[in-house]
Amino acid sequence: MEILFDLHTHTIMSGHAYNTIEENIVEAYNIGLQAYGFSDHGPAIEGGPAEVYFRHFRIFPRHYKNMYVLCGVEAVITDYDGHIDLNGKALERVDYAIASLHSWCLQPGTCAENMRAYRGAMQNPYVKIIGHPDDQAYETDYDELAYMAQKYGVALELNESSLDPESVRSGSVREKMRLIMKYCRRYQTPVILGSDAHHKSYIARFEQVRELLASENFPQELVLNNSLAKLRRVLNHPDIIK
Ligand SMILES: [Zn+2]
Ligand SMILES: [Zn+2]
């Protein structure tokens, strides 16, 4: 399966990633991606960019040579109602929003609380991707999650960095991803591969997620990354992609 884009990547603007946007863009182009998105953490993350960083995205060129460049955010879900740390004009300006739970920002709740947080985030019309729902810190009903995602037109992410043994989310991640795939297949919910690269060398590296997809014989139609037409589904401004 050909992977045409990676939307979950970080730059020095996140405060704990190590390449500039420019460096990431050149790397993405050199490895042959058709679209590249940078998604720095939202303002709730310590050392992350201020809201104005996102509000000013209108000036950013959306092309590099023949590759699309997309300006996104990995927003932080800040409470169990599913509020995120970017709103108003800034949220309207981003090309796409990934919403994620991070245990250093929101204490894991009960399964019901975590599900309410996910539901609230999915009901936000600008959120079209849930980032790393594999996090074992947050007890999750994956059947319900995949059902809700389908209902709200949201893709669930299969996050390559979660499978890194050094990841904060490691542990039963593989198990959780198998559940995500099982229920996404049941409800025909789209999944999106995200590298969660915090260094350019990880951009669009999906060895482990690919292996999992193959071992589960997961239908390629439900994977968004193999088509620019499918990429449009997670964008706030789909017209960027012609
Ligand atoms: Zn990060
Ligand atoms: Zn994250």
TrEMBL record:
It comes from the Bacteria. It holds the Pfam family PHP. Residues 5-79 form the Polymerase/histidinol phosphatase N-terminal domain. InterPro entries: PHP_dom, PHP_phosphatase, Pol/His_phosphatase_N, Pol/histidinol_Pase-like. This is Phosphatase. The lineage of its organism: Bacteria, Bacillati, Bacillota, Clostridia, Eubacteriales.
